[in-house]
């Protein structure tokens, strides 16, 4: 009995070191060596200033910016190194068949139309009124971006074609032409519109 307990304990220690420590270090090391930017969070930095990660959504509400998917945001009691409250997001747990969900979607549709009355009557892409599974989706569909072109052009006094050119620059197609869906990175488009990101 004593030997069995010692062997079990030894196995737990060995597996913890192998799987919990060595495996993690090897994977992290390989990722940092082969894909340093991605392993570091795909952070967008321009002239020494960090603007965010291209993998995490940020909330934009100004008329001259491209808006991403809705986010359920909350502020925790924790703060970052500069004393700012830490914000987090999550997916909604409301049923698609429930009245609460209908009311929430209708409110978001009303907000979009109020922001650009000229688009009233134009079908609103579903990703502009629904939260993603993670609640932090950094990308929207090209259709959702196109829906916002008129508002952005009006707010920035640009032509719609100029706005479309910026959006197209940060639109990614299907992987290998087959997998996934085309998508637009919201943060990159907005940084380009603000003249911060240039490629």
From TrEMBL:
Mode of membrane association: Single-pass membrane protein
Localisation per UniProt entry: Cell membrane
Primary location class: membrane
Keywords: ATP-binding, Cell membrane, Ion transport, Membrane, Nucleotide-binding, Potassium, Potassium transport, Transmembrane, Transmembrane helix, Transport
InterPro entries documented for this protein: KdpC (IPR003820)
Source superkingdom: Bacteria
Keyword flag Transport: yes
Family as reported in the entry's similarity comment: Belongs to the KdpC family.
Subunit structure: The system is composed of three essential subunits: KdpA, KdpB and KdpC.
Biological role stated in the UniProt entry: Part of the high-affinity ATP-driven potassium transport (or Kdp) system, which catalyzes the hydrolysis of ATP coupled with the electrogenic transport of potassium into the cytoplasm. This subunit acts as a catalytic chaperone that increases the ATP-binding affinity of the ATP-hydrolyzing subunit KdpB by the formation of a transient KdpB/KdpC/ATP ternary complex.
Listed name of the protein: Potassium-transporting ATPase KdpC subunit
């Amino acid at each position: 009995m004593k030997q069995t307990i010692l062997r079990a304990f030894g196995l737990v220690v060995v597996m913890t070191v192998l799987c919990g420590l060595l495996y993690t270090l090897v994977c992290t090391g390989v990722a940092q060596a082969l894909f340093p930017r991605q392993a570091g969070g795909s952070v967008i930095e321009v002239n020494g200033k960090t603007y965010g990660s291209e993998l995490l959504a940020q909330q934009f509400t100004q008329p001259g910016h491209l808006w991403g998917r809705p986010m359920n945001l909350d502020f925790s009691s924790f703060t970052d190194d500069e004393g700012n409250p830490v914000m987090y997001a999550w997916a909604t747990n409301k049923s698609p068949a429930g009245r609460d969900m209908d009311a929430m979607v209708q409110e978001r549709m009303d907000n979009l139309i109020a922001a650009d009355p000229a688009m009233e009557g134009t079908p609103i892409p579903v990703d502009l009124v629904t939260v993603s599974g993670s609640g932090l989706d950094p990308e929207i569909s090209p259709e959702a971006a196109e829906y916002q072109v008129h508002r952005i052009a009006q707010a920035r006094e640009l032509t719609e074609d100029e706005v479309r050119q910026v959006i197209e620059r940060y639109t990614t197609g299907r992987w290998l032409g087959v997998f996934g869906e085309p998508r637009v990175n919201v943060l990159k488009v907005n940084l380009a519109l603000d003249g911060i990101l240039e490629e």
